[in-house]
Amino acid sequence: QRRKLPPGPWGLPLVGYLPFLDPKAPQVSLTELAKKYGPVYSLLLDVTTGRAPLYLTHGIMNGYGIICAQGDLWKDQRRFVHNCLRHFGASKIGPRDNMEKLIIKHVKEFVRYIKTLDTKQPIDPLRPLRHCLGSIINEIVFGRSWERGNETWEELQELQEEGLKYIGIAGPLNFLPFLRFLPMFKRPMSFLIKGQHKTHRFYQKLINEENVLLNKSRSADLDTNSYTNLIQGFLIEREKRQNTDDVHKYYNEKQFHHLLADVFGAGLDTTLVTLRWFLLYIARNAKIQSQLRDDLKTILNDRDPSLNDMESLPFVEACLSETQRIRSVVPIGIPHGALDDIKLNGYVIPKGAMIVPLQWAVHMNEKVYPEPENFNPSRFINEEGRYFKPEYFIPFQNGKRMCIGDELARMMMFLVSTTILKTFHLDLEDHKTCMEGESGITLSPQPYKLIFSEI
Ligand code: HEM
Prior knowledge:
Strand order of the largest sheet: 1-4
Strand content: 5-15%
Oligomer: single chain
Number of helices: 14
CATH class: Mainly Alpha
Largest sheet: 2 strands, antiparallel
Number of strands: 8
Bound molecules: protoporphyrin IX containing FE
């Protein structure tokens, strides 16, 4: 079988090529291999067991939720989440006013908060941004948001942050699950599992509270079809299907908890990391920052930005896309598994193989993006001066399983970035800030500080 596989380097027995990947920047090692072996290559990471399902996704998540689900459960839940997002106004089709209002409410709170700080002092935007974006996602998923500093909210953020860190550390377990018995992996594993239980207990409390509210609405004969958050949506859908097998198969308690965690996690960290990179690149590039501000002045004059302005502000969209290109938030991509034998470029990808959509290699390919390390938003502007999306731009990946929150992400990134830039001039405290980033599940910038001067 190995002879029919795409070309690739030989690795060591048992562990394959794993020891040769740079754990701090695996996307760079993998991209070097693509240069040597071509656009489709294979890598032996573990010759003793299949690659998919992964240990972390299936051994820990047990195939629940949406990110790790497969087959009928995935199809059902994907449709359900898709309908919810459309219902809330986070989709390309249908009215978007409610979602727009929600995003604007929280970004305005962000601006108010920054203004209360001593703006001569450099500020790390991480925490205030996380509060802002997290509050938007909290309202979508849980139907509520918490004040800055609220104990529960602080704990949720901590669990999320630590969870992401430990998933990164425990990465090799995907390929070599027996490593979990080694002391160095025991701690992250036990943290991950404890954190998961804690989070799920907390979710159950929120579900119970939402259930009480829903029952009250029912007794008052209120319309419960216009649900406004994922918990409510799930409770209503479960009730609709109460006399069918679906409750047991797709609408059980475990699935409920995992789904909430997936949408919360996938929605918050990705948008947060993108906007942190965006602010960093803009603060480093005075010319680009002033062009952005000129555009905002021309189009908005003094009013607040709205989603209708997206088309008239192509340079904003171009800067956001260039950020997503130059620092792929998920540089190695979210792996897919081959459900059947697949023919690709004359090679056979056998059923069960893990397919790694290596975003970094695509986005840093100098044939498509000359001087890839240069932050150059004009790559995303066509001859007519409009925003355009090249074929080789895949931050949300593509196909049937691509990111389900892409539209929501675009809405959030546009409204948050324009509101910030319209209000503040950004200066980087230290222009020597390292731009390589830290690899975990996402590639996040090293901590940096900005001076926000009110315009
Ligand atoms: C800049 C922001 C974002 C980026 C770069 C991003 C990127 C991605 C990527 C690369 C995938 C994997 C797609 C695949 O397997 O082919 C994904 C999946 C997913 N994303 Fe996003 N995402 C972002 C924002 C969001 C938001 C705001 C939400 C909230 C609803 C979200 C929810 C999800 C979910 C639930 C999945 C799993 C889909 C499935 O397996 O069917 N994402 N995202």
